[in-house]
Amino acid sequence: MQNKRSKDKSRLRFILLYLVVPVFLSLLVLTIVMQLWNANLFIPFQYKWDSLFYSMIVKGIVDNGWYWYNSFIGAPDGLYIFSFPAPVVDVLNFLIIKVISFFTNSWAAILNFYYVLTYPLTAVTSLYVLKRFDFSYIPALVGSMLFTFLPFHFYRGEAHLTTSAYYLIPLMVMVLLWITSGKFDFKGKFKDAFLNKKYLFAVVLTVLVAAVNIHYAFFSCYLLLIAGFINLFNSERRFWRRMVVPLSLIFVIILVVSANLLPTWIYEYQYGENPIAYDRNPIEAEIYALRVPELILPLVNHRISFFAGFRGIYFTGGESPAVSLGIFGSIGFLFLLFILFLKKKILQKGIDKKADSLVDVSSLNVFALFVAMTGFLGSIFAHFISSSIRCYNRMSIFIAFFSIFAFVFILNVIKEKKFRTKLKALLVYCIYLFVLVLGIFDQTIPAFVPSYEKTEAIFFEDETFIKKIEEEVPAGSMIFQLPYHQFPEGGHVAGMLDYDHFRAYLHSENLKWSYGGMKGEPNDFWQREIAKKPINEFLEEIKSKGFSGVYVDTNAYLDKGKSIISKIEDLVKSKPILSENGRFVFFKL
Q1: Which residues contact 403 (CB under 8 A, 6 or more apart)?
Q2: How far, in Å, are 116, 353, 432 from residue 436 at the CA level?
Q3: What 3-state class would DSSP assign to 197?
Q4: pLDDT in tens, 340-385
Q5: Is 308 within the bounds of a domain?
Q6: What is the pLDDT of residue 350?
Q7: Of 500, 506, 509, 507, whose CA–CA distance to 553 is shortest?
Q8: How many CA atoms lie less than 13 Å away from 455 in the CB half-sphere?
Q9: Which string of b and e fits 351-378 if b means at least 16 CB within 10 Å?
Q10: Which of 61, 184, 295, 338 has the fewest CB atoms below 10 angstroms from its CB?
Q11: What is the Cα–Cα distance from 453 to 204, expressed in whole angstroms?
Q12: Would you give the DSSP letter of residue 576?
């Protein structure tokens, strides 16, 4: 009975320390940073650009049951997403979203809930991993919060939803360190390496990583290979069987990614390959490469004006602000580089498990830089093997965990010192609290607070306009959207941002919209060619196809659509429906 009570207390303590505390603390910090008390959770935090793409995916799951085919966009044929493999392989995220959709059919609420969920998930996994390497609880908790609230998390946001979901990265780093430290080494039969809990855990993890984000899957394969070589060269006798486990895990990732791509391959076998839909230029690997100063410099628009100006000196644009490590992550990063020069001394002393792991982390960190930095391995891979992976700066999330691991090591050194007085012990805890508060302050900026009021106003204006259209035409009607715009990655046209045409679909319950047909396919070619014709021929042809109306986004025209609206109005002999702000115009045919 006493043993049972002891086990119950141990479980309760585990749940409290490793679930309740990090979940509560992460949600509290997120609420403060994003001022969530001002948010309407039924309106997306972000309502433009790539966030509209993921909004479409989420609503597509609600409307059609899954995201592979959406019958409400790309009219008349609908959208088959298979030719755009980036979201096709991110199955895990959409499975979780599917589960959430059982509780609400509001796509905005689902999108917001999943994005918020990525914060406590990251806090829990990072705390668990840091504790597994014998760090004291408080330093590990501080490190987990710093990793959870990286600028990366906010900059990616809902616009890069699957990239924001980096909660599996700490667990992958744990597996990498198991490999480097020889946890999977075996002397006898192969079953000694494979039939154990650690390996089974590693297999499950690699399956999940392969289904959460294609960049994380690719980087994990690379780092697994590097971890195997580190373990191989750490020992005096280099048994090549040490490479069996990392190679088997790489095979698992490749197998799962291939399984997720199977629908794409079947679709291409039936209808032919579409090289236009996912066209990547090798030079993009340079454009989206990592630059080391971007890691250690302060954020753009930092809360402290001096730091903000200092960061502005080296601002390359693009995604560079997202890779910033913050002040404490930068300390850890520089410490890892310093460790390289002390590697032999540390290995000779064999201080403890944390120190040995730190040496391996420093090696992994350098090789992560080698693949991510401009002009290095990533660029070579893109030019000579495949350009499908282009955003090598996203390796920064692995580098961030390596760096925070090193910084927690420094904090832990303070914690392990024996203090004779309670006052000194209290001072140490005050230091931890100071690091946590300063770290969050340093890693977040006011711009991370969404424009709730502005977004809400635009959101309801769009909703009101689409409801008016639904009152004018029968359910199931097809609406042609002007101007013609390629999907995906069609770019901006004048004042119309990429994916802006999805705003109509997102507020629609029963109408079908022309935008969203996959570029490079027959439906897309038909839309592009018909949109070039004179207005009278254009209207006749879309009516013959069964379209019941024309929707115009005037922001896409230099004259705010005055010319085309006048021409359509003369031909249809009726006044259009206007949105409240005058941006959108609808003609019933």
Answers
A1: 325, 329, 330, 332, 333, 336, 365
A2: 20, 25, 6
A3: helix
A4: 877 656 555 445 666 778 889 999 999 999 999 887 888 888 888 8
A5: no
A6: 46
A7: 500
A8: 18
A9: eeebebbbbbbbbbbbbbbebbbbebbb
A10: 338
A11: 43
A12: P
Neighbours of 525 (CB within 10 A): 12
Q: What are the distances in angstroms from CA 391 to CA 237, 285, 290, 564? A: 38, 6, 9, 39
Size of the chain, expressed as the number of residues it contains: 589
Residue 568 CA to residue 585 CA, distance in Å, equals 11
The answer to whether residue 411 is domain-embedded is: no
Number of other residues whose CB lies within 10 A of the CB of residue 463: 15
Angle at CA of residue 159, ends 57 and 455, nearest 5°: 95
Residues near 561 by beta carbon (within 8 Å), at least 6 away in sequence = 552, 553, 554, 585
Rounded Cα–Cα distance for residues 458 and 305 (Å): 31
- Pairing mode of beta strands 577-578, 584-588: antiparallel
- Burial class, 403, CB count within 10 angstroms (exposed 0-12 / middle 13-18 / buried 19+): buried
> DSSP letters along 268-337, please?
HHHH---TTTT---TTHHHHT-B-HHHHHSPPTT-SSHHHHHHHHTT---TTGGGG--HHHHHHHHHHHH
Q: Which residue has the tokens 């403060």?
A: 32
Residues 274 and 571: their CA atoms lie apart, in Å, by 37
Tokens of 76: 């008349």
Quick check: is 349 in a domain? no
In order of 41, 159, 161, 230, 502, the CA distances from 46 in angstroms are 11, 7, 11, 42, 14
Tokens representing 133 are 């390497």
Tracing tokens 């230091």 back to the chain, one arrives at 431
433 phi/psi in degrees, rounded to 5: -65, -40
Contacts of 533 by beta carbon, 8 Å cutoff, 6+ apart: 541
Residue 556: the pLDDT is 94
> Does residue 138 fall inside a structural domain?
no
Domain that holds residue 24: 1-38
Residues of the chain with pLDDT under 50: 319, 349-350
Provide the token pair at 138.
């408080």
How confident is the model at residue 286, as a pLDDT? 86
Q: What is the dihedral of CA 31, 35, 41, 43, to 10 degrees?
A: -150
Q: Look up residue 550 and give its amino acid.
A: V
The CA distance from 513 to 489, in Å, is 18
Of 290, 284, 299, residue with least CA distance to 388:
284
CB 26 within 8 A of CB 36: no
Chain center to CA of 543: 41
Number of domains the chain contains: 2
